[in-house]
Amino acid sequence: MCNNPLIVRTLYLFKTSINIIKFVIPIGLIIMITIDLYKNLIIGKDNNNLKKIGTRLFAAFLVFIIPTLINYIFDIFSINTTSSNFASCYSEASIELANKLQQEEDLKLAQSEEENRKQALLESQLNSAKLKAMQEENIKRNQSANSGGSTYSDTTTDMNKQNHVYIKNGVFYAPKYRSGNKSTYSGRDCPGDHPEKKGYNNKYGYNNYFWTMLQNFREGLKKAGYNINYSNQGCRSYSYQTSFYARAEPGRAAKPGRSNHGWGIASDVDFYKNATTKCGSGRNYKNCPGMKWAHEHAKEYGLTFPLLNASYKEDWHIEPLNLKKY
Ligand SMILES: [Zn+2]
User: What is the pLDDT of residues 74-86, one digit of tens each?
Assistant: First the structure.
């Protein structure tokens, strides 16, 4: 208790106050008594007045003696170390002690803040190291996924062709829509008819890099106790997008030839509330924790849900995080 500067300060203030009271009130009373005695001399003997003098004398005595006794008792108890801590605390309470304790407390606070800062720095370093290792791991996985049968390459020649998706230095490049040039339409007759059929040799017709990312993402979701389904669509053909666009509400679907689905670099996924049950419609973060996890962790797998905050919100639409159109 005596280590708390606030308590020490309060005890000190209390002690000082009663020390002042113990002198000021008796002095006031003695002055009043003197006046009474003087009155008595002039007016003559008055029993009532004498009684009053007696009472005041007694009160003055009490006001002086009680605080003195309290201090004395606390002093006695504080000498005996086995008795009340409060007594010694009360006796030792001084403004110097309070200030000293305050300084110690401030120092401790500053030290713990410094400690917290160091801890946070360490954690952020660890996190960025973790993220870097994850990205390197993903690059390795992407490379291995793309080897084995595929002759797909990341060369400037691919860029010059500007008619299919490729990845260079971790960035996805997809052609922009160009009217009139059907060879650059997104989703011509995919997946089989992608230019040179490179980088699309997986069974769903996704771009291989994107497909690997989705697989990694599903592994992560499974580890967290959920799942995700992306097998119902790899690449959306131009003719499908045309009919889809025709029946969709305005602004809801991409113009035919413009959809990232047509390049196999977008997917509309199903979320799971646990390892086996799909969430379905009417889902939210509370009844579909797998969706919450997916939205929060996608970027760790190089993925993003770009239409989460769109005017037509599509919380299921997933794409590569670092997609560029040239
Ligand atoms: Zn979509």
Answer: 777 776 655 456 7
